[in-house]
Amino acid sequence: MLESLAEFAIQGIVLGGLYALFAVGLTLIFGVLDVINVAHGEFFAIGGYLAFAAIVVLHWPGAAGVAGAAVGTFLLGLGVYPLLLAPLKRRLGARPRGPLYLVLTLGLSTFLQSSLLAAAGGDYLRVPPYAGGVLDLSFTAVSHQRLLVLVVSIVLLGGLFLFLRFHREGLAVRAVAQNPDAAQAMGINLPRVFALTLALGVGLAGAGGALMAPLFNVYPTVGFPLTIKAFAITILGGMGNLAGALVASFLISLAEAFSVMLIPSEWQNAIAFAVMIVMLLLRPSGLLGGGGRR
Amino acid sequence: MIARVRVIAVPAALVVAALLPALIPHPFVLTLATQAMVWALLAASWDLLSGYTGQVSFGHAGFFALGAYAAATATKHADLSPWLGLVFAALVAALVGGLAGFPALRLRGHYLALVTLGLAEIVRLVAQNWLELTGGPFGIHDYRTFPGLPAAPLAHRQARYVIVVAIVAASVVAMRALCERTPAGKAFRAIREDEVLAEMLGIRTTVYKLLAFVVSSAFAGLAGALYAYDVQLVSPSVASAATTSFVIGMAVFGGLGTVWGPVLGALLLFGLSEGLRFIGVVYNLIAVGLVIMIFVVFVPRGLAGGRRTA
Amino acid sequence: MLRVADVRSGYGKLEILQSVSLAVGEGEIVGLIGPNGAGKSTLLKTAFGYLAPFAGEVALEGRPLVGLRPDQVVRLGVGYVAQAGGLFADMTVHENLLLGGYALRSSREARAAVDDLYARFPLFAARRRQPAGSLSGGEQRILAVARALAVRPRLLLLDEPSAALAPRFIADVYDTIRALNGGGIAMLIVEQNVEAILAVAHRVFVLDLGRNAFDGTPAELRASDRIRRLYLGEDEG
To answer: Is the pLDDT of residue A94 over 80?
Structure first.
């Protein structure tokens, strides 16, 4: 019994790393730009496609492929704010019309998903694992590939937190999240911070997509289930609260892992939504409360 | 420009819609036209809640699916007449809409959109996994459609088309009347513009928001039932996010907050997307995505050019 | 130093300033007073770039400011202290001051600037790790001013520095203002607390309903019965 629990716990933790990579990026974007990026999952998919292109087509080594995919997604993400969000902001001015930005990113999501379908077809593309073999713990075995995902996620997220905490530009990003007007008065260039933050957030998603390509395969809608789950995680952790998103990611992934004992596995995905709905009704500010302005 | 669009387009569309079965008696065209009408009703119902009252919902696919499944299961398992099935579907959707509306009253903006998205996903998961009730991934079929229609295939289609158009037209007129000619409509607009101010002016925003939820989901459910009886197959994909995306695209294209604008947007966008299907199956959603992005930013009032922006 | 000419400005379609002109000379403290809604804060925000004026000119030493973003205006040597300070309340005193130095060319310069500020304002040196929001009202206000000094501005725009402060703290803030002006910094100060501003200003502009109503030295203001009655209150001055 204890062995089973431990096994579920390990599975939950490993999956949590991926969720965290995804949800923290989404939360970062929300915290700084006040926009919910419905298209986040599509950047996850793009990361997978870039990894496929680099590793399977161009025969790059795995690490370079993943790094290239992350950077490529980041670069693509740089265009989103200036081309899409900034024009809407100019039109709306200071009026907070959150739902319209949501509709905009929904349009982006539809566009990206169907563009991927058009460009690459709907086939599930296979990417070979970056690390073979398994780690044999006495009660369970964890594939090295999954461990790799967890480790890299932790490293990337650690890097992000260090950047935000100690680097000058990270301080600027936090300032914009807390008080954009005051940040401007400090000489911080808002459009630049917005564009970079969004690119950073989707870059993390792209890294996740590249890392998970051997496990999930690569196809246009691979990121969508994660997106919805990430909304739930973000709300659980408190929208705009990065640490909350981190904690909530693992809470949800562990809940899903342990739920297998109680409910049929098809219903696993419903857990995240059920949690989200309950959270929104009882305590919309999330477990740890909203970070930044919210 | 705005006035001219309305004066010309609306009567023209109505005339074409009415005469279509006679003008182009081709089963394929009629099938498409019928589906377009169903989308139009769904888009209009979404607009009533999200564009007109400002409570943006990302989960209308859920109410649509509820109506479709309610109608299909009732007719299949309880042999309910499809005419009654329409009413039943609308009631089921309205009930769930009301229940969902209650807690949603406290939520604004992003949160409301996300919780409705979550609800739609739950509906989809239930549809996909509750085999006994919903037939699982393969859905429900084998149920009858409207009784008393001509037997010949073409005439049958023409009759179905006329039924759908009549119901959709009546529904849209009813929603429009609710929004433009009743105190409820005024309340909806006030809530959209400034909810806090509306409260202070003495408008019972709770009641009206709930009303908007119930009416909107009822018509969405009705659209779902029409879909069920026309297509005669209901599967979990009707509750997908693509449905919601399509509906929002249609509303944005046609003009948020007008009720009839999304109708126009639905007919045009559906026509556009089906037309593009001839070019290559995969491109129609690209167009939808582009339309949403371009119109939200640059053409906020959509084709209808309503007096108010959302 | 700063010249505002015939500015029309507001929010969206709402016009708040109809036509306002003023000037701040080198090393001058200029006060901006008037009833609520007169547009005093709007003028400050327009000058700094938060708002784009519908018409008129704003120039800093001859260089036009209209069309520049606030972060660009800062780099020209203008500081802005918002109403209620605009501090990053959840960040530490140190982080707030570091941010003040963001526009400097490097982290090293920023850190040096912050060390200078600690020397001038020792009370912050002791509190550097505390969240800015935990300081007293007056300390927060002075921190906001200190933060704006990190980039060595030649002109400071202050929006109601005394707002919501106890009299003791108001005195502290205005002592700081006086000292800074002694060092040569020009200031444009919007104030509701007429007495406080009249005590330090070289010149005062009165705004009413989006237009200039009067300008002159504090003595001239006090001498005019009409101005005293309308804007200074009978029992003051």
So the answer is: no
Give the domain extent around A144.
Answer: 2-114+140-282
Q: Per-residue pLDDT averaged across B242-265, rounded?
A: 85
Average pLDDT of chain B is 82
Rounded distance between C-alpha atoms, residue A37 and residue C29, angstroms = 47
Q: State whether residue C152 sits within 8 Å of chain A by CB.
A: no
Supply the pTM of this predicted model.
0.87
Q: Does A120 reside within a domain? A: no
Are chains A and C in contact at 3+ CB pairs closer than 8 Å? yes
* Residue A208 included in any domain: yes
Query: Quick check: do B and C touch, 3+ CB pairs under 8 A?
Result: no
Residue A124 lies in a domain: no
Measuring CA to CA, which residue among A204, A180, A203 is closest to residue A94? A180
Q: Is the model more confident about B160 or about B279?
A: B160
Name the region of A34 (left: φ>0; alpha: ψ -120 to 50; beta: rest). left
pLDDT score of B161 more than 90: no
Please check whether residue B273 touches A, CB under 8 A: no
Q: Does A284 touch chain B (CB under 8 A)?
A: yes
Residue B14 predicted with pLDDT over 80: no
Total of domains in chain A: 1
pLDDT number for residue A7: 80
Q: Is residue A288 part of a domain?
A: no
CATH of the domain at A180: 1.10.3470
Stretch 9-38 of chain B: residues touching chain A, C-beta under 8 Å: none
Please list the alpha-helical segments (H only) found in chain A. Answer: 2-33, 40-52, 62-78, 80, 86-92, 98-120, 144-166, 168-178, 180-185, 190-216, 224-237, 242-259, 268-282
Residue numbers in A near C82 (CB within 8 A): 181-182, 185
Q: Which residue of A has its CA nearest to B193?
A: A97
Q: Does C88 touch chain A (CB under 8 A)?
A: yes
Q: Where are the domains of chain B?
A: 33-239
Q: Stretch C69-80: mean pLDDT, rounded?
A: 93
Contact A171 C98 (CB under 8 A): yes
Q: What is the pLDDT of residues A243-269, one digit of tens each?
A: 999 999 999 999 888 888 788 777 777
Nearest CA in chain B to A269: B125
Nearest to A111 by CA among B272, B243, B288, B297: B288
Provide, as residue numbers in chain A, all residues whose Cβ is less than 8 Å from the Cβ of C12: 93
| Encoded tokens for A272 | 């995240």
